Amino acid sequence: MTADSPAAAAPRYDDEIVKKFLLATFIWGVVGMLVGAILALQLAWWPANLGLPWTTFGRLRPLHTNAVIFAFTANGLFTGIYYSMQRLLKTRMFNDTLSNIHFWGWQAIIVSAAITLPLGMSQTHEYAELIWPIDLAIAVVWVLFAVNFFGTIAVRKVKHLYVAIWFYMSMVITITVLHVVNNLAMPATLTRSYPVFSGMTDALVQWWYGHNAVGFLLTTPMLGLMYYFLPKAAERPVYSYRLSIIHFWALVFLYIWAGPHHLLYSGLPDWAQTLGMIFSVVLIAPSWGGMLNGLLTLRGAWDRLRSDAVLKFFVVGITFYGMSTFEGPMMSIRAVNALSHYTDWTIGHVHSGALGWVGMSLFAVGYYLVPRLWKRPLHNEGWATAHFWLATIGIVLYVVAMWVSGITQGLMWRAIDDVGQLQYPNFVDTVIKLVPFYWIRLGGGLMYLSGLVLMLVNIGLTIAGSRPDQAINPSPAPAK
Amino acid sequence: MSHPDNNSPQSPAPDSWHRRTLEHKSALFAVLTTVAISVGGLVEIVPLFTVSAGPQAIAEVTPYTPLEQAGRDIYSREGCVQCHSQMVRPFRAETLRYGEWSRAGEYTFDRPFLLGSRRIGPDLHRLGGKYPDVWHYEHMKDPRSTSPGSIMPAYPWLLEDRIDTADVQASMTALSTFGHYTQAEIDAAPAALAKQGEEIVGRLRQSKVENIEADHEIVALIAYLQRLGTDGKKAIKDQVAQTERAQGEAVAAGSAQ
Ligand code: HEM
Ligand code: HEM
Questions:
Q1: Ligand 2 binding pocket, CB closer than 6 Å
Q2: Segment holding A203, helix H or strand E
Q3: Among A313, A452, B79, B109, fewest CB within 10 Å belongs to which?
């Protein structure tokens, strides 16, 4: 167990890069979710658009999605990946310079996104809004990361690749392919371009990208983090090796097919819509395989849930993963999608995955890492528990409000009276009904956000309050 | 007890087939992963490039005029797609509310596509011709003046900012790579912009809106909004009429026999 003992860890692993990514994760998290809260307010109370071009909902919404996906989630993934892969492969990262170019390059990309999106510079492809020069920068930085990633694998001191690495690898490969193909475009000016594909083909390519950006940023690499950090935190081996093999290959193969569930009842050929629907429904199996492998890893450790914040966050995160991967396949069934599509139901689904699975899991990773990286106990354990409850209640408020408003609006749109006319011919009537739920969502979002702010303060005070005298053993040696 | 770091994270014997053949060979693992993630995309996307399996073209659907294209770029810039869809689904409640459901061939010149995934506001695919120009002018200036209770932001700057002819020509040049425009059309863009712009300004004047000129952004946006879904609507109407005529003739021929 020399690998993790403080003395041996210092020269061996690059933890400085992990610290940087970790701080970036939670700082950008606050920014991205603050923008989310502003959006929520704008929908409840339109004057919050402020009458300025740069602050209208249409321009800020992509800022929120890009910030939470590429700044919060991606930095969180890099944090976990850089920490765990060095330890799993028992080697330092392949090249420290590449690590640092990756870090600073990625943050520069985020800053340029935060400037260009409010200015209205957008390709309008959802989650691929950034203009072509930034897309090129993303491609370069991502490829350098890939070189560092595969280089580290090449110089590994452990013969086999642990399951977490498989999931990371699927992300590195798939995001490269998706990003390049979906952003093929002809520039008109420095800030504007037109895609190579048009109409329904463009739509299909975009949703092949969109769904799998969710799949290979918000899902598979998160599972990789789960496979490393959960057994570590629970001090239990992963429940089933065989299950991890089956659900990994099934997940990476099946995920790609599901894109057309975003285009049901569109002009897309029927066979493509049907393929998308069938593969989405089948996707529930490997998804739940992952969930079960996670939850069952905790067998015999459930009592520790009461005292251990890391495990608490993980359990709720994994449970929301199970929930949103049940809901998603249901929403892919044409008859259900007919009601849910275009409504707040989708937004509820998104955020049960995003706040529940992605957010809670990253908080777990954060609380696991901070004491180990800075080698001192967390400033205040009680605050971590408070964060947990703020976040959990916040998610429930957010998601339930969106379910109710989504189904309400969907039913109002389709309501037909006795003489065969629309019962609510005036669209605005179906909007006014939703405003109370938008306020509830704002409340839930603010709770979630305040929990995160508390976490950030807790991290800051942990780092500032140097108490090396009380340094904990970063990873208690397992009794062997 | 075993941990990920100890190389024996899992319960079964590490000497499995998967471990020996794949986990020890990272390059092969990466190649297989690449294959696994490629199949679905290839099967679904590639056929769309062939005519038979792809979206059916509609002859009546033609590229946007320079002014409409400028309006479309404003629509993209302001992020209207964040709240408005442009895809009417083939349900009775939708065709009652919006009009004909959307056909794939109607989007041939949509680069990028703007189908959208949200309806915070109503669908706009059949918006063209639904309201007079002045309605759009008032609505963009203050949405609540035309739609009480609306939560849409106001866009007063569209009434002040102006489009740049050279910029529109740059867009047309890029789109000409895909056959949307000829060089002659690009050269003639300044005249075309002015002509279509003046028509809209004239209609606004008739409705007592005096302060707008042909190169104001609002004019371009109105041109785009009034074009939405109109090519397709006409084509679908013609098609339906044609089928009905053919059916009528068949019935007449049948009864004559
Ligand atoms: C404080 C927390 C958050 C709040 C208040 C919030 C609020 C919002 C709001 C108001 C919207 C627009 C909804 C609409 O179109 O009606 C939105 C969209 C979205 N948010 Fe969040 N959000 C939060 C956190 C997150 C996080 C952590 C993620 C991802 C990791 C996320 C991902 C998204 C995505 C992907 C969309 C677009 C959904 C779609 O297009 O269907 N959000 N959010
Ligand atoms: C088996 C797993 C899943 C399936 C089959 C699935 C299916 C779906 C479906 C049918 C929609 C609605 C499409 C529409 O009507 O427009 C959707 C939207 C979405 N889902 Fe999932 N989902 C799954 C899991 C997840 C997870 C775990 C997350 C997040 C971590 C997630 C994030 C999203 C996002 C961001 C959208 C909004 C896309 C947009 O319209 O912008 N999904 N999903």
A1: A 126, 214, 218-219, 258, 261-262, 280, 283-284, 287, 324-325, 328-329, 331-332, 337, 340-341, 346, 349-350, 353-354, 357-358; B 117
A2: helix A199-213
A3: B109
Angstrom distance (rounded) from CA A75 to CA A94: 19
Cα(A478)–Cα(A97) distance, rounded to whole angstroms?
34
CA distances from A28 to A48, A73, A111, A412, B134 (A): 22, 9, 10, 38, 43
pLDDT the model gives residue B249? 75
Supply A346's token pair.
Answer: 């989708």
Q: What are phi and psi of A119, to 5 degrees?
A: -75, -5
Sequence-distant (6+) residues with CB within 8 A of A458 are A378, A379, A380, A383, A384, A387
The rounded Cα A25 to chain-centroid distance in angstroms is 11
Q: Work out the pLDDT band at B16, boundaries 50, 70, 90.
A: confident
In this prediction, residues A323-343 reach a mean pLDDT of 97
The model's pLDDT over B92-102, given as tens digits with 9 standing for 90+, comes to 999 999 999 99
B36-68 pLDDT, tens per residue? 999 999 999 888 877 555 567 788 899 999 999
Q: Give domain A16-463's CATH number out of 1.10.260.40, 1.20.210.10, 2.40.128.110, 3.30.70.3340.
A: 1.20.210.10
This complex has an ipTM of 0.92
For residue A296, give both structure tokens.
Answer: 């069952």
The 3-class secondary structure across chain B, one letter per residue, is CCCHHHCCCECCCCCCHHHHHHHCCHHHHHHHHHHHHHHHHHHHHHHHHCCCCCCCCCCCCCCCCHHHHHHHHHHHHHCHHHCCCCCCCCCHHHHHHHCCCCCHHHHCCCCCCCCCCECCCCCCCCCCCCCCHHHHHHHHHCHHHHCCCCCCCCCHHHHCCECCHHHHHHHHHHHHCCCCCCHHHHHCHHHHHHHHHHHHHHHHHHCCCCCCCCCEHHHHHHHHHHHCCHHHHHHHHHHHHHHHHHHHHHHHHHHHC
CA distances from B35 to A120, A248, A252, A283 (A): 37, 14, 10, 18
- Residue B10, token pair as written in the block: 């899992």
Which residue among B80, B119, B173 places its CB closest to the CB of A342? Answer: B119
8 Å CB contact between A80 and A228: yes
**If you measure CA to CA, which chain B residue comes closest to A187?**
B174
Q: Give CA A101 to chain center in angstroms.
A: 23
Q: Which member of A194, A232, A259 has the closest CB to residue B174? A: A194
Distance of CA A96 to the CA centre of its chain: 26
